[in-house]
Amino acid sequence: MDRIDLNSPDIMDAREAANIWGKNDSYVRTFYKQNPDKFPDGSIRKFGRAWVVTTEGMEAITGIKDPRKNN
């Protein structure tokens, strides 16, 4: 099994991800409920009440590369 680095900036909660991509706080949850197949396998998961999403997942659903990497 591959080691997962939970300190990676490519793993974030849904609210943080939405804010980074300039979307409203509920964007990721709403998008997932309507289009779960748009997320690449393993790019989103719910832990208890918290949704966790990867940069790959956000790029897939928004069509926008990570805004933090535009420098």
From TrEMBL:
Pfam families: HTH_59 (PF20038)
Domain Helix-turn-helix residue range list: 9-63
Listed InterPro entries: HTH_59_Firmicutes_type
Protein name in UniProt: Helix-turn-helix domain-containing protein
